[in-house]
Every structure is written in C-alpha cells, then in structure tokens.
Design a protein that fits this description.
This protein is an alpha/beta fold and about 260 residues long. The protein has ten helices and eight strands.
C-alpha cells in the first residue's frame, strides 16, 4: 500500500502543503474535458481515481471519486459527491463495479502506477482513461530554457507512455490533446502563450513539479523570466506562441478497453 503524508496524501508530493491553490488555478478546461468525455464513451458510472478537488468530473454521470489527501478532499465543491479515502493501488470496489474508470493528472503521483492501473482495469467494465503527459515531450517547451530543473523533474515523474499502455492492457489508444491558448487548467504548458502567469508563485505552486525545486531556483526563474519579458527577449524567441490558438505539447489521453 502506498505511503501517506500527514494529511493522507499518497505518492511523492505533499498536497497538504501545496494543494491549497488547486481549486483556484486548476479549473477544468471544457475543451480538455471534451477529450476525456470522448474517451469515456457511453459510460454512465465512472470511478475517478486520484480525483483531487474534482476537476473533470461530469455532473451528468454517476461519478465515484477516490482521493487519499484530506486537504484535496476538503476542496471539493458542494455540488460534487464526497470522495472515498483510498489509494489507487487498493480500490475498495468489486470487479467490474463501474462502466469506466478515469484518472486525471494523477498517475505520476502513485507509489506503484502499475498496480493502480491494474486496479482501474479490474473495476471498470469498459474504458480505463488516463490523462497524463508524455515524459519524452515535456522538455520541448520554452520553460526548459528558464527552469530545466522543473521539467527534468516532470520527465522523471511521469511514467513512459509505453509503460502505461502495457500496465493497462486490453486495446489501447494514445491521443494527443491540444492545449487551448486560454486554457483554464493551470498546468505548466497551459501558460505556453501567457508566460506572465508563471511569475505568480501561487500559480507555480498549483503545478506540483515546482515543489521539487528549492526556493533559490524558483527565485532565479522568476528573475530571469521577468528580465526577458521586460526587455522583449522572451517575445523575440517565443512570441509567435501568443498567436497560436492551440499548442500541441506533451498532453495525451490514453484509453484502454478490454480486449
């Protein structure tokens, strides 16, 4: 069973410390939500594993949320059901209990992602859906020029897509998810055309990878980016991104259906 932090957090990040701003900065984006809904197909009952504050939980479906962090469970809005206190590696449900299973920006937090994905596959009669980032692509982003430690951390933490599909089994598909220029879900690549947002410490804190670098690195990043924004150097190198309606980065949705 995965270990837990002081507030019940499972995995490698302490959401009792860093999770306070998630409900503010990590609002579900409707266009990304459409990609998740398409992957879920016609499911009516869904288990959301590592559900956090409830991002991307459809109110038109019967969703059972699973979340080990007390601080994240406390941020769930009143219109969503309370989350079950459990970890991905040991889901307290019968075989085939749900039409589908999903996990959103969570699999890299699990102490044993293979066990967690096997559990998702066990409890879902139909699709098992994983929204994650491809670690082979995360460094192909302007942020690497300013905070390589952050994206190196992300590349280490995210499991390889091939390992995820192998663990899920069944028939799998991997689909790139374009990120809209005004994306409301504030992960790092969501700010591809709005670098100013990452000068906000609270916005950075809502991306867990920033918690793995020290304060000196965060301050150096902010100083370097602010200098280049003020001088125009950032726009000279990356300004065309401001005109791109979508960015095709590392975001992917992996869907497994029983063979």
């Amino acid at each position: 069973m995965s270990g837990r932090g002081a507030d019940g957090s499972a995995g490698d990040a302490d959401y009792g410390t860093i999770g306070g701003g998630y409900a503010t900065y990590r609002q579900p984006d409707a266009r990304i939500g459409q990609a998740i809904a398409a992957a879920l197909g016609g499911a009516r009952t869904v288990v959301n594993v590592g559900a956090g504050a409830g991002s991307y939980e459809s109110t038109t479906l019967e969703v059972t949320a699973v979340e080990p962090s007390a601080s994240m469970r406390a941020q769930r809005p009143a219109h969503l059901s309370a989350a079950v206190d459990a970890v991905a590696e040991h889901l307290p449900f019968d075989d085939g209990a749900f039409d589908a299973a999903m996990t959103i920006f969570s699999v890299h937090q699990w102490s044993d992602f293979r066990a967690g994905l096997r559990e998702m596959r066990r409890v879902a009669r139909g699709p098992a859906v994983v929204l994650t980032c491809d670690p082979g692509l995360v460094r192909d982003f302007w942020l690497y020029e300013y905070a390589p430690e952050v994206l190196d951390t992300e590349a280490r933490r995210y499991p390889a897509v091939a390992d995820l599909t192998e663990a899920l089994g069944g028939r799998t598909t991997v689909t790139a998810v374009p990120i809209p220029v005004d994306c409301t879900d504030g992960f790092n690549e969501a700010y591809y055309a709005r670098p100013e947002m990452l000068l906000d410490p609270a916005a950075r804190q809502a991306c867990s990878a920033w918690s793995f670098v020290d304060e000196e690195a965060r301050e150096r990043f902010a100083a370097d980016l602010r200098r280049d924004l003020d001088s125009g150097a950032w726009d000279a190198r990356f300004g065309t991104l401001r005109q791109q309606p979508f960015y095709e980065g590392s975001l992917v949705v992996i869907t497994s259906v029983p063979a």
